Amino acid sequence: MSIVHYQGFAGIRLEADVIGSDNDPAVLLLHGAGQTRAIWSNVADALEQAGRRVISLDLRGHGGSEWPEDGRYDFDALVGDLRAVLAQLGTRPVVVASTLGGWIAAAALERDAAVLASGLVLVDLPVSDDVTMAQRIGDRLREAANRAPGQAAWDARLFEAFDAATVTERLSDVARNIALPTLYVRGAMSELVSRASAAAFVGQLPDGELVEVEDAALVVTEDRIDALGAHLIDFLERRAPRGWPEYRAGSDARTFRDALGCFATGVTVVTAIDAAGQPIGLTANSFTSVSLDPPLLLVCIANNAGSAAVLREARHFAVNVLQIGQQPTSNRFAGKGEDRFAATGWEIGEFGTPVLSGSLSSFECAREAVHPGGDHFILVGRVLKAIFEPRRDPLLYFRGKYRKLHFA
């Protein structure tokens, strides 16, 4: 076992135990309020034996993680901590989280879930919008910390800053946005959440399952946590197997897309002028050089793209390679219902194509050929003019997320 430090929201230091091989699929364990990562020790050992790399993280103000001097324990900071850790892992773990940790994980994975994680397990998670129970738990933990000031494994200031009412309201509609395989584990004797409330929550998940641990009120306690192991390993083997994800012709297209997403690319905006003399454009990352002599490049355009018909017939078009400061431009030209060019600096180039100002490079092209390519078409251009800015860094795209260069 090794102790690893991560940087959380606003630079807070977060501490974790890590066991297992770097080559094994990862599981991130997140404890509840008033606990530490030590609560997961038996589960972590079982997961390692099942071929998983396990990261057991202490929340801020708990265990070995930093107890912030400014008492910053608001929910946004806690969620920011988890998203920061997930971004630093370099892999997409299955996140296993209980009570407060579950609230944090659900909020952190409400957006960009598939980029940050490969699955989610929520244990002992209060899901009712009735905050009475959550407040009672907070009161008990606060009293316990106050009875032994300076000796508790968590910072009692957490419960002064944490607003359970705000959190439950914020999470009232979160389930439908968690685009991950998700397992909800409930103690059959739970006072935190009724079976009906748990089932309603799971019913809103895009891909959810519900299991119960018999003769348990809280599953993640020192005397009951072993009961979680079988459910957890079963879920992992079914929904996040140790083997490499595999695509074969005719199977899930999402797996194929994920495989393609492992190839990091730049981001471009392809532009042209339509028959009415108006500029059109769209974001594309299927772009590559073809030949130096003659100077050819290609872009792949979705057949159902709004600008597809214009680009298929255009005699001239431009490919604008975006730099790191043009992420808003990429989003704008990837969306719909907005006057893209009104909010973007551009000018007509020498060969009558829209050239975006401030791009990393721009290629003005004459149409050389158009080839069918399944649900896309391949637009080949002969480069007539190219300009570039050597002092800027590229906007990169990898596994569904914008990236930037890291220099050694």
TrEMBL record:
Residues forming the Flavin reductase like domain are 260-404
Q: Print the organism lineage.
A: Bacteria, Pseudomonadati, Pseudomonadota, Alphaproteobacteria, Sphingomonadales
Is Oxidoreductase found in the keyword set?
yes
PANTHER family per the UniProt record, alphabetical: FLAVIN REDUCTASE, FMN REDUCTASE (NADH) RUTF
Protein name per Swiss-Prot or TrEMBL = NADH-FMN oxidoreductase RutF, flavin reductase (DIM6/NTAB) family
According to its UniProt entry, one GO biological process term is: pyrimidine nucleobase catabolic process
Keywords for this protein: Oxidoreductase
Instruction: State if Oxidoreductase is listed as a keyword.
Output: yes
Q: Which GO terms describe its molecular function?
A: FMN binding; riboflavin reductase (NADPH) activity
* Protein source organism: Sphingopyxis terrae subsp. ummariensis
Q: Which InterPro entries match?
A: AB_hydrolase_1, AB_hydrolase_fold, Flavin_Rdtase-like_dom, NADH-dep_flavin_reductase, Split_barrel_FMN-bd
